[in-house]
Amino acid sequence: MNNKLIKIISAVIVLTFLVMGVSHPLTFAAESNTHYVHTTAVHDTEDIHTIHVPITKTERTEKLDLVIVQDLSRSFKSQFPEVSNRLQEAIDLLSPLLDRVSIVGFTSIKSSEAEASSLFNDARSVHQVGNKGRPDEYYNVLLKAPLQSDKNEAKQVFKDIEANDLYGNGTPTAFGVNEALKYYMEQQQTLNNQKTLFLVVTDGFPNGDINGNALIPSRSMIQLLGPDTGILKAFDNIKNNGFHSSFAMWQDEASLKKDLTEPVYTTFQNYLEEYMPQATSSEDFYFNMTNQKNTIEDFARTTKDIVQTHLNQELLAREKINDDATYVEDSAQIIDANGIQVSIPAPYTKPDVNDNMLSWQLDALPPGKYHISFQVATPKVDAAETQIEASDHVMYVNDSFHPIDSISPIAMDSIGNNLTSQIKVLENTVDVATPGVYNITYAVNSSETADKLPLIDFGELVFHDNSTQTLHPLDYAYTENGAYTEKKVTVTVLEKAVQAPEIDVLLPDNTQKTPSTTPTPSYPPEKIIANKFPTYAAEKIIANKFPAYAAEKAISNVSTIQSAPHSRNSPSLPLLGDNANWLVGLLGIALLTGLWFKIRKP
C-alpha cells in the first residue's frame, strides 16, 4: 500500500471519529421543516411556546376585474364621502397592467323629481320606468362607468357623485346587482388567469326586486331578499357565472327601525344574517355593520380591505394544535423580513381557531417574505419525583456492617426508573464497637432526561394554484432536570448477647435435650427462658437461679406443666410422655419379683 493511500485512509478514520465524537446538546427550540419553536417562556403553571411559520408571498400574475356596485340612495349621502375615499384608495391598489375596474351606481327616482335630478340628467345614466302612467310612477336609474384600466377615470366617478349630488331616492338592490352583472358581461373579454369581484355597497334594506318592481318592505320581504326575485337571486347569478362577490351593508339602525317598525327591521336583519353569508363567494366577504356598533370609518376601511384581499396571491395557512396544548388568544401576528409587525386587511385581520385548528387566510398580504407568529400554552413540565425506601436497622456490637449492603436501600422515580445504583451515603455515624443509636443519611439525584412535547400535529400552506406545502408534526424538545431526595434511617447497636445456661430436660425416650445456645440479647435469664419457652412459664425454673445439679427441681416444675392440655407438636418444653405409667408399673413388678425370690431363698 503506497503512502498516499495510507494518508487518505488515515484522514477518513480521523474525520469519522471527530464526527462521531461531536456532542449535540439539547436545546429548547425545536424545528420541523417550515415551522419551529422560536422561544419558550417558563411560568409557574404553564409554558408558553412562540411558534414561527416562515412564508413567502410571490408577485401575483392573476388579473382582477373589479366591479363596484354602489348604492346611490339619498340616505347614503352623508356617509358617502368616507366610503368614497376608501374606495378610491382601493382603486389605487390596482395594477394598470393587470387590472380593470367598472362602476355601476343604482337607485330610483320619482318621476316628479326626475327633471330636476342631476343624476337623472347625467350622460352616464340609464333609466327604466316603473308604474308608468300611474301617480306613483318612478324610474330605476343606473350610473354606468365602463370597464377600464385607467384608475384616474374610475376615481373621477366617485368624485363626480359627491360634487354633482348624483343621488336618488329608492334602493332597488337586487335590480342594481343584476344589471351590473349584465353590463359587465357585455364588456368582458375572456382572459387567462383572471378573476372578477363584484363588490356591492349599500346602506339599507331594499325596496325593489330583481326586475325593478318597487315593493313595500313590510309586505314583501321574501320578494326583496329571497332566492327567486330578491338579493339572493342576484348573487346566485353572479356565482353561477363563476365570479366572486362581496356584500357590504351599512345601517343607520335607529332610522331603519323608525321607517320599518322594529319587528319588521328585526325580521329583515335575521333573514340577511342567516342567508347572505352563504350567498357571497366567501362568508368572510359578507359584513353587515350598524352605527350602533361600528363607525362609518370601520365600514369604509373594511370595504377597501375586501378589494386588497383579492389583489394578491391566495394563501391559506393551517396549523393543527395538539390537544394537550392551547392557543393563546390574540397572539397571532405577521412579521416581515425586518422584524416589523404587519397589519392584515379585513376580513382576515386575525386567524380563525376552532377545535384547536388555526386557519389564517392571507390573500391580502403583499408579496414578500414573512413569518406567522403565534403562541400555544402547555401544562408545566414537572421533574419526576424520586423516593428512597430504607428501614431502620438493629445489630450487635462488633457485628459486620455496611451502610448499603446491610440495609439495602432502594431508590425509584415516579416514572418507574430504578435509581438504586445511584444512591450515595451522605452521613454515616455508626460505631459498631459501641452500643447506641446512630444515623445514616442516603441521597439520590436522578440524571437529566431528554423528552419531547407535541405542539403541532400537522400544518399546511395552500397556495392560489391549490398546491400544498405540508408542515410536519412539531415537537418541543426539552431537558428535564434530575430530581433530588434524601432518606435518614437509624441503626441501633446492642450489647453483646449472653449465652443462656444449659438445661438438661428428660424427654419421653429417656434422652436429654440441651436448649439451643443461640446468643440472645443481654436480658435477665428469666427473660431469656421466657422467650425460649413461652407456653410453659419456664421462668419458674430460672427463679431458683439454677443451683448446681438441681435438675429434679426443674423437672418437678415441668410436671406441673404436664397436667395442662398439650399437643405432641407443641414447640414448648418436652413432656415425659404417655409411656411414663407403664415404666412405673414395670419397675413395681421388678421389685415384687425380687422380693418374692428373697423370701423363697432358704
Automatic annotation (TrEMBL):
The chain crosses the membrane at residues 580-597. The keyword Secreted does not apply. Keywords: Membrane, Transmembrane, Transmembrane helix. The keyword Cell membrane does not apply. Gene3D superfamilies: Immunoglobulins, von Willebrand factor, type A domain. It comes from the Bacteria. SMART domains: VWA (SM00327). Residues 65-306 form the VWFA domain. This is DUF5011 domain-containing protein. It comes from Listeria booriae. The lineage of its organism: Bacteria, Bacillati, Bacillota, Bacilli, Bacillales.
